[in-house]
Amino acid sequence: MQKLKLSHAPDRQRRVLAVHDISCIGRCSLTVALPVLSAMGFETSILPTSILSTHTGGFEGYTCRDLSGDMDPIVDHWHALGVRFDAIFTGWLGTHRHIGRLAHLLEAFEDSRAELIVDPVMGDNGRLYATLDDDYVHAMRAYCARADMLLPNLTEAALVTGTEYPGDRYDRAYVEEMLRRLLDLGARTAVLTGVSLAPERIGAVALDRAEGTLHYVDSEFIPGMWHGAGDVFASVLLGAHLRGKDTAESLRMAVRFTAACIRRTRDAGTDERLGLQFEPELAKLSSLIQEN
């Protein structure tokens, strides 16, 4: 098999692999990661874990096809072609089979030295998603230990660190301790999302092992069920990081862009299940990343 001709120039376009599900209606997962990372200048490859008619948040009667059996053959084909990735970004996986397939993926592209960015999508508001169980949590915990950057919300952070979910009873000291626990799993950078350290504000907190400095960025809290907001945030954060922004600037870009998308969606008044109206904001994001 003839291998691909790849550029090795210092200014070459970088390649990101996004491993998520595809929800055909309702902006989340791959239908967010692919356009956002592309707008930020990356060649974005995809490895679908499953395909759904809609996402599962608030919809009934949705269809879902598990694609875990296709993942290894896809990876093997890429490997034979000599593909290399600069970063691998994983989100919703859903079963032990998918986590197992990721071990094969990481082994196949070990020579790429790709950064592994993990959003351990498992639950929210203190509850594990109904389709998951404790065995899945243990498997995800082991997988998170391989991450270079880890992006859980408060619920997921409690699950992967084996600590009690705090509800809304937490402070800055708790957040910093949780971030250090996440770093202890092995990550170089830990980012805790959905954090509120002031009334009517919400944002994210990051701690980088090398810097040792806590970074917190927040915005106005807008009530609603903003499906896909975490995917928008994570994609922008990853893109900024890969474009060479430091942790503080990457966090600022991700929080502010996500907040702008939420405001636009609220003002439009459309069904929240359709996800964030991020597409009209992409031109601004592309300009911003080029200017800075």
Descriptive account of the structure:
By secondary structure, this protein is α/β, with parallel strands linked by helices. The chain has one domain (15-291): Ribokinase (UDP-N-acetylmuramoyl-L-alanine:D-glutamate ligase, 3-Layer(aba) Sandwich), CATH 3.40.1190. 39% of the residues lie in helices and 21% in strands. The chain has 9 helices and 11 strands. The protein has helices at residues 30-39, 68-81, 96-108, 134-144, 154-161, 172-184, 229-242, 247-268, 282-291, and strands at residues 15-25, 43-54, 64-66, 87-90, 115-118, 123-124, 127-128, 149-150, 189-195, 201-208, 214-220. The strands form 2 sheets. Strands 3-2-1-4-5-8-9-10-11 form a 9-stranded mixed sheet, sandwiched between helices. It has a two-stranded antiparallel sheet with strand order 6-7. β4, α3 and β5 (115-118) form a beta-alpha-beta unit. α1 (30-39) runs parallel beside α7 (229-242), α2 (68-81) runs parallel beside α3 and α5 packs across α6. The chain is globular, with a radius of gyration of 18 Å. The mean pLDDT is 94.
Summarize the model shown.
The protein is of the alpha/beta class and 292 residues long. The chain has nine helices and eleven strands. The strands form two sheets. The protein has a nine-stranded mixed sheet with strand order 3-2-1-4-5-8-9-10-11, sandwiched between helices. A two-stranded antiparallel ribbon has the order 6-7.
